[in-house]
Design brief:
Blueprint (H helix, E strand, L loop, with lengths): L1 H12 L6 E4 L11 H20 L3 E4 H8 L1 H4 L1 E2 L2 E2 L8 E4 L4 E4 L4 H10 L8 H9 L3 H10 L4 E3 L3 H5 L2 H7 L5 E4 L66 E5 L4 H11 L3 E6 L7 H6 L4 E5 L5 H13 L2 E4 L7 H8 L5 E6 L10 H8 L14 H24 L3 E6 H10 L15 E6 L2 E6 L4 E2 L25
Parallel strand pairs: 1-2, 9-10, 9-12, 10-11, 12-13, 13-14
Antiparallel strand pairs: 2-17, 3-4, 3-16, 5-6, 6-7, 8-14, 15-16
Length: 480
């Protein structure tokens, strides 16, 4: 089932992936949903796409994929866990059900308190009392109007009647589309020559494969000649995306997981942030392995110029914000030819703020009294690995067909997919042994979950620890 689903994903994205060998020792996380299938398929698809870049085989282990889906739970700095949830974040009983408030960022906490008529210093008990006297939908509406984040617990039937659900249902799980050509616009671009990634370094005529709109076969973009290492084909796992520049404009889990996955296969990933943009303390470190980090102030002319140069030099731009939230980036992407633009949202075309835990509530995935959330941030992690798959699939197609590409995913669509995989009796059988690594960093000794998957029999790896935020210049590394 897992291998067949991975194959179907490749076909839907226009690429033929290598066959994926699946290993399953029976590990499971306690849920009525088939979390193990979602984990293995999403990780396996990203792994297979990376393998296709090198024309080699791929493998995924179900237990390793499940470990990756819980990596923030096992992450340690000098043996201490990172902070994941703020005091006021959580589920609250309402007059007619349940609502979840997401207060990890200070401005979202203030918005929630304002919506509930509470002072900035209100504690969890005060929030509990305020929620008990209101309906769940009323709280969701008021918090949203205050630019905060909340979600009422719905049944799946109630969610299917929601306009957002109807819009999401019309979208693919991973949408990979070529943008139409326009003069000077992002749809322009010829096929890319072997080993050439940068939009400004296109070679007319491409690599001679001339597939046009045909499906890209595994190995069509093999880069073995430009890689190093002792693997059977003379390449390293990291060579799969070596020379590919990925601009990371994401935070929290789904987007950072996508770009971290690409870093494990050798991409030059540069995360852009700002000193005044909040991050979740534990997550901003645990999702930054293999990346570089810079800060830009997009309110300044210099910051906007630097961003424009980064976009112009990138191969992939990954965004994980609600539609229209970064218009300056939208404009840059639209006028830069040859880009792969990856867009991750909470609720798809209808828009709206949201995070994994909120989408679980809104879509009915967490239905129960009290709510029964998934045993991991499954929507985030699955969407992250699927986004990495979509980005690499688009790179494979760009090498052959040229042009610019858009990849779109949403947490709500991933929730629908998870539900479609079916349900069963919960089984709790999981052991993290053998899935953890350690690395020294400027933050201390880090314990982390190793990257899952194998290509050519070898595991991907991060060659550098997470950097301090803003530690790097906003420039790309020279290409080899």
């Amino acid at each position: 089932m897992i291998a067949a689903l991975i194959h179907e994903l490749g076909m839907s994205a226009g690429v033929t992936l290598p066959e994926v060998r699946v290993t399953d020792d029976g590990s499971r996380l306690p849920s009525v949903y088939q979390v193990e299938v979602a984990a293995a398929v999403s990780v396996g698809a990203a792994t297979a796409a990376a393998a296709a870049m090198l024309g080699t085989d791929a493998a995924v282990d179900v237990r390793e994929a499940l470990a990756a889906f819980r990596d923030e739970r096992y992450f340690r700095i000098d043996g201490e866990p990172g902070e994941l949830w703020a005091e006021l974040s959580g589920d609250y009983r309402t007059a007619d059900g349940w609502v979840r408030l997401h207060c990890n960022f200070d401005h979202h906490r203030v918005a929630a308190l304002r919506a509930l008529g509470l002072s900035r210093g209100a504690d969890r008990e005060a929030v509990r009392r305020a929620c008990e006297s209101r309906t769940a939908l009323e709280i969701e509406r008021r918090v949203t109007q205050e630019n905060g984040c909340a979600a009422a617990l719905r049944t799946q039937g109630e969610w299917r009647a929601d306009p957002r659900a109807r819009a999401v249902a019309r979208t693919p799980l991973v949408e990979v589309t070529r943008l139409p050509a326009s003069p000077g616009g992002s749809g322009d671009g010829q096929p890319f020559a072997e080993g050439v990634s940068h939009p400004g370094e296109r070679a007319g005529g491409g690599d001679g494969l001339g597939l046009g709109g045909a499906r890209v076969e595994a190995g069509a973009s093999r880069r073995g000649e430009g890689s190093r290492g002792s693997s059977p084909g003379g390449w390293e796992v990291k060579g799969a995306l070596e020379g590919v520049r990925v601009l990371d404009l994401t935070r929290v889990i789904a987007g950072p997981v996508a770009t971290r996955t690409m870093a494990a296969y050798g991409a030059d990933v540069l995360k852009v942030g700002a000193p005044d943009v909040p991050e979740v303390p534990g997550l901003v470190i645990s999702t930054a392995f293999g990346k570089r980090s810079c800060h830009l102030d997009l309110r300044s002319d210099g910051g906007r110029r630097a961003l424009a140069e980064l976009v112009e030099g990138a191969d992939v731009v990954v965004r994980a914000v609600r539609p229209g939230a970064l218009r300056v980036v939208d404009e840059l992407v639209d006028r830069t030819p040859g880009l792969v633009s990856v867009e991750i949202t909470a609720y798809g075309p209808a828009g709206g703020r949201g995070f994994d835990s909120l989408v679980q509530m809104a879509t009915g995935i967490a239905w129960g009294d009290p709510p029964r959330p998934l045993p991991a941030q499954v929507l985030d992690h699955a969407t992250g690995y699927l986004a990495a798959f979509g980005a690499i699939a688009a790179l494979l197609r760009r090498r052959v067909e040229g042009g610019s590409w858009r990849v779109r995913l949403s947490l709500a669509r991933t929730a629908q997919w998870l539900d479609e995989l079916g349900k069963g009796e919960p089984v709790d059988r999981f052991d993290i042994a053998g899935s953890l690594g350690e690395m020294d960093s400027g933050f201390g000794r880090l314990t982390y979950v190793l990257p899952p998957g194998r290509i050519g029999g070898r595991r991907p790896e991060w060659t550098s620890p997470p950097p301090p935020q803003g530690a790097d210049f906003p420039t790309w590394r020279p290409r080899d």
